[in-house]
Design the sequence.
């Protein structure tokens, strides 16, 4: 292990062209682009994994010294505190991805004892576990402390963990306000309820918007914390913000059938087709039926949503109404009220139908969010809830295999979109 003192004014940036506030997903994307353009290897000296490990370690160390001193970097409070930062010392540590050169911050009094990369420590193993912990897939601060103690033998306080994870908020703010594409073939929108303890514990919706890009990639456009139950009025605010960030056109938007949502979409993107999720319609139908009739109702409704066109769907629905309307009139009213948003997908071929007839595409994302939220129970405030959801999103698809499957799955539907919406997915729109 080698150590070299570095004066404050000569400390280099961790990874050139990468801001310290970049989100994990953005960072990885930028590193991959650089790897491709410069022929950068995944492993080995100066490789992709080394640079990612370097940034994670340096971010954690900066959090530790902030906790030790009691104030953030460049905070005026430190001028008369009796102790302050004094540059950094470059240390080469052996890791699972090879030697990594990191800058360990120092303090004037010399009392700072780093725990993530301890003094005289020559090897740091299990970096992946630390990244996973800091991603905090619903782990509490106490659980993260226990994890670091088990993996590294490091006694890290809950306050240190809080300081480290709070740095995520800068990256989240940049991610939440980043420019988006001018056009997307499909948006999937949904809201997930979380328990937030602001004054009193109450359910609050977290709004999530997921887009499919013209290249067939998945892109989470943002998360928003609402008040009370899910509402079309708040969705209008979300859509307006996305338009202000550069989103000018959406071909189709898939939702769960919230009342008033189509009007909100039309206000922002007049040409967008709103499609109600068929799976949600079926689930809501079951709420009005006795459990012993669920299978029969599902079988009776299947010809409706698998019909070749809207006229045929209406014929099958009238047959359902004749058979079940007397016993379950609420189910009939439910489908009648949702009919205008249910039928759009029937006008498209099977390639488009199978990807827009439900919100299944966003369900895997929702499942990851719910897992993280359930582990925490409830949150002290809105910021803590958003941080948890954001970190869960940033830890999606760590191997990249999901991205490959996603792109392959959307290849044929996007070709169909190009034909069905001729002229709206051209490069000029992006």
Sequence:
């Amino acid at each position: 292990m080698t150590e070299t003192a570095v004066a404050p004014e000569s400390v280099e940036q961790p990874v050139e062209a990468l801001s310290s506030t970049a989100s994990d997903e953005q960072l990885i994307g930028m590193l991959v682009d650089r790897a491709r353009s410069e022929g950068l290897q995944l492993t080995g000296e100066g490789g992709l994994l080394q640079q990612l490990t370097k940034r994670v370690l340096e971010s954690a160390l900066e959090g530790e010294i902030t906790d030790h001193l009691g104030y953030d970097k460049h905070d005026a409070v430190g001028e008369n505190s009796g102790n302050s930062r004094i540059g950094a010392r470059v240390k080469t540590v052996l890791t699972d991805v090879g030697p990594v050169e990191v800058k360990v911050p120092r303090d004037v009094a010399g009392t700072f004892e780093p725990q993530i990369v301890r003094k005289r420590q020559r090897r740091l193993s299990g970096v992946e576990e630390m990244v996973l912990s800091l991603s905090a897939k619903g782990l509490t601060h106490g659980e993260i402390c226990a994890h670091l103690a088990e993996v590294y033998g490091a006694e890290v306080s809950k306050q240190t963990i809080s300081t480290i994870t709070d740095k995520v908020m800068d990256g989240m703010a940049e991610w939440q306000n980043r420019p988006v594409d001018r056009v997307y073939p499909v948006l999937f929108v949904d809201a997930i309820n979380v328990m937030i303890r602001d004054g009193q514990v109450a359910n609050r919706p977290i709004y999530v918007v997921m887009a499919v890009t013209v290249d067939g990639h998945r892109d989470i456009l943002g998360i928003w914390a609402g008040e009370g139950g899910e509402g079309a009025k708040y969705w209008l605010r979300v859509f307006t913000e996305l338009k202000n960030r550069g989103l000018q056109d959406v071909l189709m938007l898939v939702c769960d059938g919230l009342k008033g949502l189509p009007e909100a979409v039309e206000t922002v993107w007049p040409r967008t087709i709103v499609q109600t999720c068929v799976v949600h319609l079926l689930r809501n139908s079951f709420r009005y039926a006795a459990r012993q009739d669920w299978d029969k109702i599902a079988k009776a409704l299947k010809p409706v949503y698998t019909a070749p066109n809207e006229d045929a769907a209406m014929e099958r629905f009238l047959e359902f109404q004749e058979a079940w309307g007397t016993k379950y009139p609420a189910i009939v009213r439910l489908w009648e009220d949702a009919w205008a948003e249910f039928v759009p997908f029937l006008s498209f071929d099977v390639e488009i139908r199978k990807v827009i007839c439900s919100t299944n595409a966003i369900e895997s994302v929702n499942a990851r969010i719910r897992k993280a939220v359930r582990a925490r129970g409830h949150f002290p405030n809105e910021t803590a809830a958003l941080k948890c959801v954001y970190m869960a999103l940033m830890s999606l698809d760590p191997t990249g295999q999901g991205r490959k499957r996603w792109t392959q799955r959307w290849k044929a539907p996007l070709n169909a979109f190009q034909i069905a919406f001729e002229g709206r997915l051209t490069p000029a729109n992006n």
Observations:
- Confidence is low (pLDDT under 50) at residues 6-22.
- The chain is about 45% helix and 20% strand.
- The first strand starts at residue 3 and ends at 6.
- The longest helix spans residues 48-69.
